[in-house]
Write a structure and sequence with these properties.
It is built from 8 helices and 11 strands. Strands 1, 2, 3, 4, 5, 6, 7, 8, 9, 10 and 11 form an 11-stranded mixed beta sheet that branches. By secondary structure, the chain is an alpha+beta fold.
């Protein structure tokens, strides 16, 4: 992967530093943590060394595929954003930043993670490039389009996805859903409470009875949740569900609407399956901050 030993050593030092307890993952701090005299070797590694991050990613994915040994897993798609100062980092712009819950100056990426039992593993991420920050000749792609690109790449490599989980940005995207249907991949996607299917004038949504289930967490604990099926037509291949912590008051931040092509007798299973997305989202936020994702400033995208 690397043209010389020195390049590999710097690669190793950089990753050891990111895994260390250094509070701010800047190159000078990482250099101190791994025993280098200064950060120049790490700087050269990131800016001048002739290695390919794409080739490195592909090798990592090959090893991940070998580890799975053909087993299927759940794929979680989620976008994430972090605040960044100035405009020197490529593709930073004023946009919605999920970590902050508001529009601010920052960078956003679309991420794909696999879930196999209690194991969560990273697959691919792609940086979202706002229209106003596109370089000459650049092609604008929406976040759902980036997610489609990720899924098609994973399928081409040979990964076996048995279920795709994503939030309402993707659940409200006909393009994203069409691609999942094309490849015959099951999905469980969040939708908005005012989803178009609920507001058609010639249809009336039929709300089923609330079913109580135990939301099981990765640490073995569980909490009561409630799930209710919403159907406009019994002949529909897609079913809609409402999941909440309180069936009487439907708290806004604790009530989710989802759509799925899984069979309609999947009430309890659907509730726990969708919980994986929230679990990964929370864990990813902690993990990326620990590894310094929120700190980085790279003025060259490659």
């Amino acid at each position: 992967m690397f043209p010389e030993v020195r390049t590999f050593e710097n690669f190793k030092h950089l990753h050891a530093g990111m895994l260390s307890d250094v509070k701010r993952k800047s190159l000078p701090e990482i250099a101190k943590a791994v025993g280098l005299h200064d950060a120049q070797p790490l700087q050269n590694f990131l800016t001048n060394s002739p290695w390919s991050v794409v080739a490195l990613r592909d090798r990592r994915l090959e090893l991940t595929l070998l580890m799975l040994e053909g087993r299927s897993f759940k794929l979680v798609i989620d976008e994430t954003g972090d605040k960044k100062k100035g405009k020197h980092t490529d593709y930073v712009a004023r946009q919605y930043i999920g970590n902050l819950g508001k529009v601010d100056n920052g960078i956003v990426s679309v991420n794909a993670y696999g879930v196999l039992g209690d194991l969560t593993f990273p697959l691919i991420f792609l940086i979202y490039k706002p229209r106003k920050r596109l370089e000459v000749g650049g092609v604008y792609k929406t976040k759902p389009q980036l997610a489609v690109e990720i899924i098609e790449t994973l399928l081409k490599i040979g990964f076996n996805l048995d279920l795709v989980l994503a939030d309402s940005l993707y659940g409200e995207s006909p393009t994203f859903i069409a691609v999942l249907s094309k490849y015959e991949k099951h999905y469980l996607l969040a939708i908005r409470s005012n989803h178009r299917e609920f507001s058609l004038p010639d249809q009336e949504a039929k709300y089923g009875v609330w079913q109580e289930f135990e939301r099981k967490f990765s640490d073995g604990k569980s909490e009561k949740r409630y799930i209710q099926q919403i159907n406009e037509s019994e002949s529909r291949l897609i079913t809609y569900w409402r999941i909440t912590t309180d069936a009487n008051n439907l708290p806004k931040n604790q009530t989710w609407y989802v759509q799925t092509d899984l069979k309609s007798d999947m009430a309890v299973k659907s509730g726990n399956l969708y919980g994986f997305r929230n679990w990964v989202e929370y864990a990813f936020k902690q993990g990326k901050n620990e590894l310094g994702w929120a700190d980085f400033r790279l003025t060259n995208y490659q």
